[in-house]
Write a structure and sequence with these properties.
Length: about 110
């Protein structure tokens, strides 16, 4: 990550230069220095929450302390993700073993 020397905001690469997103200042892109930076343009699978209809919950741990609102079944697969700040409890995402209904559980 490179920061603007004028205002301190983060700079992004555009057309071979580094451009400040706040004040518009530019600086030349130093390829040697750029090699030290890590790009975060793409999200890794570790950060994704399995909430799409085709997400595969099967094989995940099961919870028996829950009740499906759709069918009343008492067992669901679940996955846990930290969706808020670190001082907040994680969110559990459930999928009913019987009917496939999905919901979130907040502690």
């Amino acid at each position: 990550m490179q920061f603007c020397e004028d205002c301190g905001s983060m700079m992004t690469p555009q057309d071979g230069e580094m451009v400040c997103g706040s004040c518009g200042a530019t600086t030349s892109k130093d390829d040697e220095r750029a090699a030290q930076f890590v790009s975060t343009d793409e999200q890794t699978d570790d950060d994704l929450v399995e909430s799409s209809e085709d997400a595969n919950f099967e094989g995940k741990p099961t919870a028996t302390d829950v009740r499906c609102d759709d069918c009343g079944h008492g067992e669901a697969w679940y996955t846990i993700k930290q969706t808020a700040s670190a001082d907040e409890p994680p969110t559990r995402f459930f999928k009913c073993v019987d009917c496939g209904h999905r919901w979130r559980g907040y502690n």
